[in-house]
């Protein structure tokens, strides 16, 4: 979807159309959730501090986010996808992979399906979407950004290597700033240059991920579209209005644990066989240092009270100086596994009972 949150706001409020819209709460601690293309022309981007966005674009209209509404629109978009395929892998509210190898709609090509989906989104929801069509997921992802907004770009199988060759290595999935710098040190600034590096060199520098880099450089990606991606973590986090000391975090940890537990209960309703075994506490200091503490107790937390107790116990394991102040906290549940597996593990490590006497 194109500038999804901002586009929904502009659609639902005609007075916002054509104006630079920033979806964010105002305030020194807020960050931008989304920016309309009019705001992006001023340099405003998602995840940017709202204060900086306001300086870059003084004329911007700030709109507080309404995630309930965005989720409802996302479901409508998903319903349009489902007319063509059941193989839908959502990445977020505004993005998804679709495998249309065997389409339900009977349209002859993936390109025709992409065009039909974009037309339906425009006509029924009065929003625009951009699509990338390619033989695999990662090339399709790159192609979907190629002609934004409201664009369609197709990379046929025989075009993949030529399409990727001139791209900077930072466009490859998983290549962040650190990996990009290391590749530059090896002389690989583009995908074409990356292809010239021997596989042994990449594996020596990056370990097993070196092989993955080698494959990506040649457009190889065998990862299938996964309609039901297993939940890996449920969490809630919040940035405080002002930095706090560790001993002032308890009410916030309790509140975040409540949000996490509510999300966990919804997940259990959807997939009751899946349970979370690990409790995670995330903290960010005033100077943006991130700390995480985790604990996997013998028995998974079964109540909100247990989750709060474990999260507060993790706080006690933070060993920074008492004067340290924190700007953000988060509480999460991870280590999801099937209940029968967890039960088997508990039995395996349980203390054996004495056998009854004959």
From TrEMBL:
Q: Does the keyword Transport apply?
A: no
Annotated active site residues, numbered on this chain, are: 95
Which principal EC class is assigned to this enzyme?
Answer: transferase
Alphabetically, the GO molecular function entries are: damaged DNA binding; DNA-directed DNA polymerase activity; magnesium ion binding
Q: Which UniProt keywords apply?
A: Cytoplasm, DNA damage, DNA repair, DNA replication, DNA-binding, DNA-directed DNA polymerase, Magnesium, Metal-binding, Mutator protein, Nucleotidyltransferase, Transferase
The UmuC domain sits at 1-176
Q: Where is this site: Substrate discrimination?
A: 5
Q: Which reaction does it catalyse?
A: DNA(n) + a 2'-deoxyribonucleoside 5'-triphosphate = DNA(n+1) + diphosphate
| Keyword Ion transport on entry | no
Residues in a coiled coil are none
What is one cellular component GO term in this UniProt entry? Answer: cytosol
Q: Where found, per UniProt?
A: Cytoplasm
Record note on cofactor: Binds 2 magnesium ions per subunit.
Cofactor(s) recorded for this entry are:
Mg(2+)
Q: Give the GO terms filed under biological process for this record.
A: DNA repair; DNA-templated DNA replication; error-prone translesion synthesis; SOS response
EC code(s) of this entry: 2.7.7.7
- Name the InterPro entries on file: DNA/RNA_pol_sf, DNA_pol_Y-fam_lit_finger_sf, DNA_pol_Y-fam_little_finger, DNA_polymerase-Y, DNApol_IV, IMS_HHH_1, Rev_trsase/Diguanyl_cyclase, UmuC
Annotated positions binding Mg(2+): 94
UniProt-listed Gene3D superfamilies: 3.30.70.270, 3.40.1170.60, 5' to 3' exonuclease, C-terminal subdomain, DNA polymerase, Y-family, little finger domain
Q: Assembly and partners?
A: Monomer.
Similarity remark: Belongs to the DNA polymerase type-Y family.
NCBIfam families cross-referenced by the UniProt entry? PRK02406.1 (NF002677)
HAMAP family, per database record: DNApol_IV
Protein's job: Poorly processive, error-prone DNA polymerase involved in untargeted mutagenesis. Copies undamaged DNA at stalled replication forks, which arise in vivo from mismatched or misaligned primer ends. These misaligned primers can be extended by PolIV. Exhibits no 3'-5' exonuclease (proofreading) activity. May be involved in translesional synthesis, in conjunction with the beta clamp from PolIII.
Protein name, entry field: DNA polymerase IV
